[in-house]
Amino acid sequence: MSAKQEAFSAESFVVAPVRDLPKSGIREFFDLVAGRTDVISLGVGEPDFTTPWNIRESAIYSLEAGHTAYTSNAGTPALRKAICQYLHSDYQLDYDPMSECLVTIGVSEALDLAMRALINPGDEVIYTSPSFVSYPAEVLMARGVPVPLPTKDVDNFSVNPDDLRKLITPRSKVLLLNFPCNPTGAVANEDVLREIASIACEHNLIVISDEIYSELVYDGWKHVSIASLPGMKERTIFLHGFSKAFAMTGFRIGYVCAPKAITDAMYKIHQYSIMCASITAQEAALEALKTARKDMIAMRDSYWERRNIIVRGLRDAGLDCVMPQGAFYAFPSIKSTGMTSREFAEKLLKEESVAVVPGSAFGPGGEGYVRACYATAEDQIIEALKRIKRFVAKYSK
Ligand code: PMP
Predict the structure, then answer these.
(1) d(CA 15, CA 11)
(2) How far is the CA of 107 from the centre of ligand 1 (A)?
(3) What are phi and psi of 248, to 5 degrees?
(4) Do 224 and 191 contact (CB within 8 A), yes or no?
(5) What is residue 333's DSSP assignment?
(6) What is the predicted pLDDT for the residue at 4?
(7) What average pLDDT does this structure show over 243-261?
(8) Distance of alpha carbon 189 from its chain centroid, rounded?
(9) How confident is the model at residue 1, as a pLDDT?
(10) Fewest Cβ atoms nearer than 10 Å: which of 63, 102, 204, 330?
């Protein structure tokens, strides 16, 4: 036998960046919950609402009408026009639907396309940390170097522009932002965004702005997109989708708006690897933009009530918790218990049957915190808070 036959190892065929990638810390943790019916889950980051009926009905109608073929690669013109109108009216952003807008399979695909379109091996991508688990993984898969920009509770988990400046090197190419933020619920005010924008211009960075939670902001907060600031439209890749605000996670539908040269580049990757998003999902998304605004507002108001309950309850349990202004996550500090975030989450699950996600799953900046998703029934949140209070009292030092 030749050495080659003897040494066969399937794993050796897998490229290093993928082989070395850890599996998502969230999924790993949720394997522990799988199959248990007694657990109150504040874990998975998705709306507890079913997609509003008019959106589901439009998907059913689309199938009934026999709309089962491919669409144009970039998405149906009707949906792209509706997206650009929505961004014009609600975000003060002007994109051309035919050349600057691409419909994708969720923000997940849009993020992947952006990385593949922009990153040369060794290029550095600065991203706020703690962050959505996919960010560093996407950068690594594109052979880039993820550079975490720590955000802190003393700054309400917003960006400290001085911290950002310190991380910039000649290899810095992309700045990846996510406001409102998963997992912290943080938002960035316009002054901070202006400073970030001026740093991006000064150092010639391109900004990827993941605004998937931008409708879900509270207490009258007005979301501002960094792309709407002077000089920023040409250097921003705006990512958004329907998963969160319209409770459409399972439809897998999102979009990217960006300058034509970048949209063209992302379009080529999308065209060859994906072809197009599902027509059923695209028609449902069009319906969402046309008629589901009131449903979105009702869902947002309900998250707002639950946010108030959970933050009050966590504080009452003795945990410091920044008031999250957006998304549907609370990110309390568990440092007073002396446990690591993983120990805390595992023990809480074992002893009180409540699932939260260890902050460490969201990167090194998340250690010392846990993420509690409040897109869960109110009575379940109240019961979970009782158990957390009991648990914290037992372990607090
Ligand atoms: N960005 C952030 C910050 C998220 O939290 C998520 C989903 N958890 C996504 C992107 C991906 O969303 P989707 O692919 O469903 O649009």
Answers:
(1) 9
(2) 6
(3) -125, 35
(4) no
(5) B
(6) 57
(7) 98
(8) 19
(9) 54
(10) 204
